[in-house]
Amino acid sequence: MRRNFAFLLGTVTGASLTALVIGPQGAHLVAAAKAAARSDTYTQLNLFGSVFERIKTSYVEKPDDSKLMEGAINGMISALDPHSRYMNEKGWSDMQETTHGEFGGLGIEVTMEDGIVKVVTPIDDTPAAKAGILSGDVITQIDDESIQGMTLEQAVGRMKGPANSKIRLKVVRKGAAAPIDVAIMREIIRVRPVRFKTDGGDIGYIRITRFNEQTTDGLKKAIASISKEIPPEKLAGYIVDLRNNPGGLLDQAVSVSSTFMNRGEVVSTRGRTAEETQRFTARGGDITKGKPLVVLINGGSASASEIVAGALRDHKRATLIGTRTFGKGSVQTIIPLGQGNGALALTTARYFTPSGRSIQAQGIAPDIEVLQDVPDELKSRAELKGEASMRGHLAADGAEQTGSQAYVPPNEKDDKALNAAFNLLRGGTVNANAVTAAKRAVPN
Question: What residue stretches are annotated with the PDZ domain (predicted)?
Fold first, then answer.
């Protein structure tokens, strides 16, 4: 069974290849080229086998064959894009726990760049967030052991553990004079992907922190609760906050979009060949009954968040407020490799918004751009570089965009984007100096 996560490859050119196969001579040339390619592949595999055997017989200490093979697989995957990866059995088990929404650990989303583990975002109300871990922090040591040389899965595995067990992290923070030591008590992390509240008796605010198996159910419960608290005639609309949401499951992005749409395409995915194209359409109907909708986005909104934002904007169902999104426009298909062998997260397709636009390494620009006032001590890390800055990323279809503000003020009264959303839904003026994106026609 394959699981799609939020997202790769473009199309192959066909005209020149077709010309080569016209006539018997052309067919012979193609067959010869394929044979040469196979021969070259076998030569490389023979080289790998020779190196493997030499290490086994000549290394100063007897190596662990399984570790050698895992290292070889990781090395091969590292030659692809930054989102493809191999997970050993434990890593695969940990990932399943995360998508289910419950695991023992710290509550942080991390990534690996150039061999270092960087915090993407701490999850709300988790030990990491309470201990002061911030987006952009670089973790260099876990319990006095250097992370250097570990894979991302190994580092994450070290940070997870039984509830009520302690862990010490050494963190390098931009702008700090010295590394910071942080002691954290692990807890059972029950990722609550949806939070909501009512504001002023006329607006429903919904915060979606990630797209796991519980997200759509949580969203529907939030809307039902808001509808009970605010009578329909008083409900001015909804705010859906996707800021610093790193993404998650593709099917959840589709179902979340469907919650606000009566019909139409949500997203399409295009693989290496035209036959691999898939289209996902809205199902279930708009349970908000067409109430006005504002979606908040920023530089930390990635992947599944961008699918939702792109679909709702393209269908003119929502107004996007904030800053340009991260720009992760590729699908990772999870391919289990058999009992005890873990799984492969392989980039298999690029995704496109309903208007046919790829956001890979470009992101989605808001309809209304609102920049936050960032405290001086945080200015050096208030902006994320985005997908376009990641080594080995898939190239954009057009000019790449790097960098977008990802800071969200902790106090709502200072949150300019949120206040702009409230003003818009209540019919007020929204940031007179804002940059407003041109409306796009959408094929239906």
Answer: 92-160
Could you report the per-residue pLDDT of 203-255, keeping only the tens digit for each? 999 999 989 999 999 999 999 999 999 999 999 999 999 999 999 999 999 99
Domain end: 190, 217, 236, which one? 190
Q: Which of the four pLDDT bands, split at 50, 70 and 90, describes residue 32?
A: low
Same domain, 415 and 266: yes
pTM of the model: 0.74
Same domain (yes/no): 155, 207: no
Check whether residue 123 and residue 235 sit in a common domain. no
Three-class DSSP labels, the chain: CCEEECCCCCCCCCHHHHHHCCHHHHHHHHHHHHHHHHHHHHHHHHHHHHHHHHHHHHCCCCCCHHHHHHHHHHHHHCCCCCCCEEECHHHHHHHHHHHHCEEEECCEEEEEECCEEEEEEECCCCHHHHCCCCCCCEEEEECCEECCCCCHHHHHHHHCCCCCCEEEEEEECCCCCCCEEEEEECEEEECCCEEEEEECCCEEEEEECCECCCHHHHHHHHHHHHHHHCCCCCCCEEEEECCCCCCEEHHHHHHHHHCCCCCCEEEEEECCCHHHCEEEECCCCCCCCCCCEEEEECCCCCCHHHHHHHHHHHCCCCEEEECCCCCCCEEEEEEECCCCCCEEEEEEEEEECCCCCECCCCCCCCCEECCCCCCHHHHHHCEECCHHHCCCCCCCCCCCCCCEECCCCCCHHHCHHHHHHHHHHCCCCCCCCCCECCCCCCCC
Q: Do 381 and 279 have their domain in common?
A: yes
- Same domain for 238 and 363, yes or no, is yes
Share of the chain above pLDDT 90, in %: 62
Task: State percent of the chain over pLDDT 70.
Answer: 87
**Residues taking part in catalysis:** 303, 314, 328
Please tell me whether residues 215 and 170 are part of one structural domain.
Answer: no
Q: Identify the pLDDT of residue 444.
A: 27
